[in-house]
Design goal:
Blueprint: H1 9-13, H2 18-26, E1 33-34, H3 46-57, H4 70-84, E2 93-96, H5 99-110, E3 116-121, H6 126-133, E4 137-142, E5 144-146, E6 149-151, H7 154-160, E7 165-171, H8 183-196, E8 199-203, E9 229-234, E10 247-250, H9 256-264, H10 272-284, H11 286-308, E11 313-315, E12 323-328, H12 334-345, E13 347-348, E14 350-351, E15 363-366, H13 371-385
Parallel strand pairs: 1-13, 3-4, 3-7, 7-8, 8-9
Antiparallel strand pairs: 2-10, 5-6, 9-10, 11-12, 12-15, 14-15
Length: about 400
């Protein structure tokens, strides 16, 4: 028996990221424009970094509150009051070591060996992989695509439910499609979950990256305090803090001790000086978020315009998030194409194969970058499309 064969089957089966495989292929290429990862090109603003640096200088380097310092949980309550019009107590928030960590904790609290968890696909691959590592069985339900864009058929979700189903994972606005659920769809999903006694993990990380009027619709708009919903989120996207690895869970206060225990037995908490930066992000960062969203809107329109002119790119203009998920006429192997685009266009994209069922024919482009780079990248892609 080899060393690897002595590991848990779930660990051995954890898939290599189809996104990272392309990144590793092209990471060191000179002049490459990297649009493969889900992050912008701006560094963390100084008002956030300075707050963290002050905490570090003040000696906030010891063990701290497992569930997050009170100042941060209070700042989260203020953030939700401003953006969602809801009043929450600090006891309803748990600080986690990233949005990914928040998702892992939520899965650990609800689903385990043999349980089924439903998610909407194409999807950010980490949820399904994390569920699999936990021993659960991820069950994809594909979003529908038509000339009117992406949509969610709630009846397809209902058809996928079995006696072993424990939860629904709903990411809206969606990575990678940009699909954004309307209030009626959220209500229908919540009604279905309530009827079946299921939990919902609501990943609303892109709520403020919405190109309609104001933020995207949220389960908070339709839920009651006793509904079985865990909201997972992260500081990564709104405040240009992807490398900080700080996130949170919004949950019922009755569950706080359970999640505090799960924090204790995973990371034992987020560094206090980093949490000081997160407080500054929440309390002082609304203007920065608004600027980022408008910057992303202009970037989206620029890229969509250039690729549309090729006559070969097929896509729905995304309603939310900051990704363009597109097909190319004549393209049959998106994974191979992503590597070819690195080699011959010097642009980094993520292959749709990385996002599961329904994504196989697509490529994902993150347009959350400065306009001159995006314009150059789009023209390189347009030139490459002529060779397909």
């Amino acid at each position: 028996m080899t060393l690897i064969e002595t590991l848990r089957a779930e660990a051995r089966a954890a898939p290599e990221s189809g996104i990272v495989a392309v990144i590793n292929h092209g990471r060191l290429r000179e002049g490459l424009i990297p649009l493969w990862a889900g992050e912008g090109d701006l560094p963390t603003p100084s008002f956030i970094s300075d707050a963290a640096a002050k905490g570090l200088a003040d000696g906030e380097t010891f063990y701290t509150w497992q569930k997050g310092i009170p100042a941060l949980r209070q700042a989260l309550a203020r953030y939700y009051a401003r953006h969602f019009g809801k009043t929450f107590a600090e006891e309803e928030f748990i600080v986690a070591g990233s949005g990914m960590h928040a998702i892992q904790l939520a899965i650990d609290a609800i689903a385990g060996s043999g349980d089924e968890v439903i998610y909407l696909s194409p999807a950010w691959p980490n949820f399904a992989a994390a569920a699999g590592v936990a021993g659960a069985v991820p069950v994809p339900v594909t979003l529908d695509q038509s000339g009117n864009g992406w949509s969610c058929d709630v009846e397809k979700i209902a058809s996928a439910i079995t006696p072993r189903t424990k939860l629904l994972f709903i990411n809206t606005p969606s990575n990678p499609t940009g699909w954004t659920a309307d209030r009626e769809t959220l209500q229908a999903i919540l009604d279905l979950a309530s009827q079946k006694g299921l939990w919902i993990i609501a990943d609303e990380i892109y709520s403020l990256f919405h190109y309609g009027h104001g933020r995207a619709p949220s389960f908070l708009d339709v839920a009651t305090p006793e509904d079985r919903i865990l909201f997972v989120n992260s500081f990564s996207k709104n405040w240009a803090m992807t490398g900080w690895r700080v996130g949170w869970i919004k949950t019922h206060p009755a569950l706080q001790q359970v999640f505090e225990n799960l924090i204790q037995y995973s990371t034992s908490g987020v560094a206090q000086f980093m949490q000081r930066g997160a407080v500054a992000a929440l309390d002082e960062g609304d203007g920065f978020i608004a600027e980022q969203v408008e910057r992303a809107r202009a970037a989206r329109d620029l890229v969509c315009g250039i690729l549309s002119e090729t006559g070969k790119a097929r896509f729905t203009v995304p309603q939310g998030a900051f990704y363009l998920f597109f097909k190319v006429d004549g393209l049959t192997d998106a994974r191979k194409a992503a590597f070819d685009i690195v080699d011959n266009a010097n642009v980094g994209l993520a292959p749709g194969t990385a996002f599961g069922p329904g994504g196989e024919a697509f490529l994902r482009l993150c347009f959350h970058r400065r306009l001159d780079q995006l314009e150059e990248a789009a023209h390189r892609l347009a030139k490459w499309m002529k060779t397909v």
